[in-house]
């Protein structure tokens, strides 16, 4: 019973596919239909899938995938493999005769593939025949070679081109004499000559006026003889060559234009044969070639390199031997000019080099310019080295200056702070006020000195950082401690919203707090007495983010893009009164970016300012 059911499935598959073969459907539809029907003939049709590959096009069932349980059969068309049929089980099946398939299934697939190959061969032949027929009809109907005549010169057949030339219908032409359309007495004599004088071929051109316009026609007459003595008729072919004549005239004009352009070129173009003879050129002066030499095709090296024989190696010879473009420069000892020679091969029909085209350009002025440019480059390089030397001297000077200024400044600041703290005894109010001013001014002078030196070092990338894991809140707290006295002097409330989470980043413990000192100091400077400054920190998008916000005078929108420029200060009386050197924000930006972070400012004039600093966050582990 199972065998019978199996046979029924195979027959159903064959019949359904045979129906497809008998139907005149497009090839793609045929292949898709075969692929859909093949799995039904397999033992486990619910697990079977099929694919046909033909001329790199693939047609397959939706569930098809390459598996080890596969059977593949090549598709032959005219004895050549054009593709293959693949049948697979998408789940493992026990091996039978052909992989997991039976011999009967293999034979069925062979039959299908064989029939498919024959169908493809038949379609190929049919398409070729149909194409040939179409091509013949198109050639005859669209050809300008137009009519058949009998032995008496009567037209028996004509095509559309003939009718179009003369503007007539087919009924008006058939049965007419050919001499009604061919205005040539000589052809009349050819048509009615004695049998012994039949010409094998005759051609003529003449001008006629058709439909009010003048046209140029060409006619051919080819006689047809059934024997040596009997003229049966012939073919008379008529073509409208008016456009050809016009094209020839246009081509002639184009040739004259190209010749004029060729001769008008400033550069020399020389065509050379294999013997290095000048075939043609656009030379204009007797300085390059004498009238006598023009007549005898002189050698190129005589004309343009002023030599009695080719140089060795010769760039023109190299082109003939290698077939590649060659370039060379040569300075003539005769006129002292430097010329650039570029030679390209000209290939013949057999892909052999028949000539070479040499492009010669006078580059004397360019060479002089290049020499001058090279000299200027060398001078600039020398000046650059001098500047680098001066830069090194400047760095050494700044380093010495910092040392020389730091020594007395440290002493002044140290003793002033001792006086301020009362180490040398109590001070009266006037003395305390004076000492406070000395301490503040020495701190500001020390900060200005550090800022100038940092700005100088950062330009050459000579700032060295010691990156280590640190808490962002530690840097903020350190900065708050350093500027708290300034805030207290203006009765400014300085609030830090301590973050609940641990915010870690890699930073330099000396330079990062300096950023926040500059930012908080600026906020204090531009916030009125009894104002507020709020600091906050949090984690955002893989960064640690700090915000310094004040309710100070704010910044106009047009000034925001310039704030981080070196030495930039807003030019207004209200801001100039606050002092500063214009380096704080520049230094802060350099340090933040060197730490891989970003800094930006949001502000509204009269409504306060918010400064944002983000740095790459790191995990606690």
Number of strands: 21
User: Largest sheet, order of strands side by side?
Assistant: 6-5-9-8-7
> What Rg do the Cα atoms give?
49 Å
Structural class: alpha+beta
> How much of the residues is beta strand, in percent?
15-25%
The number of helical runs is: 16
Low-confidence stretches: 572-576
Largest sheet descriptor: 5 strands, antiparallel
Shape: extended
Summed over residues and divided by their number, the pLDDT gives a mean of: 76
C-alpha end-to-end distance: 73 Å
Query: Helical percent range?
Result: 40-55%
Report the oligomer: single chain
Topology, element by element:
Blueprint: H1 2-22, H2 27-37, E1 48-54, E2 57-60, E3 70-77, E4 80-89, H3 103-142, E5 147-150, E6 155-158, H4 160-166, H5 170-173, H6 185-191, E7 202-210, E8 213-225, E9 231-240, H7 242-264, E10 268-272, E11 278-281, H8 291-295, H9 300-304, H10 315-322, E12 326-331, E13 338-347, E14 353-362, H11 364-421, H12 429-459, E15 467-471, H13 472-489, E16 493-497, E17 504-508, H14 511-525, E18 532-540, E19 543-550, H15 573-576, H16 584-594, E20 598-604, E21 608-616
Parallel strand pairs: 16-18
Antiparallel strand pairs: 1-2, 1-4, 3-4, 5-6, 5-9, 7-8, 8-9, 10-11, 10-14, 12-13, 13-14, 15-17, 18-19, 19-21, 20-21
Detailed description of the structure:
The chain has helices spanning 2-22, 27-37, 103-142, 160-166, 170-173, 185-191, 242-264, 291-295, 300-304, 315-322, 364-421, 429-459, 472-489, 511-525, 573-576, 584-594; strands at residues 48-54, 57-60, 70-77, 80-89, 147-150, 155-158, 202-210, 213-225, 231-240, 268-272, 278-281, 326-331, 338-347, 353-362, 467-471, 493-497, 504-508, 532-540, 543-550, 598-604, 608-616. The protein has 621 residues and is of the alpha+beta class. The strands form five sheets. Strands 6-5-9-8-7 form a five-stranded antiparallel β-sheet, sandwiched between helices. A five-stranded antiparallel β-sheet has the order 11-10-14-13-12, sandwiched between helices. A hairpin with a 5-residue loop joins strand 8 (213-225) and strand 9 (231-240). Helix 1 runs antiparallel to helix 2 (27-37) and helix 12 packs across helix 16. The longest helix is centred in the middle third of the chain and has 58 residues, at 364-421. The radius of gyration is 49 Å and the shape is extended. It starts with a helix and ends in a 5-residue tail after the last strand. Residues 572-576 have low confidence and may be disordered.
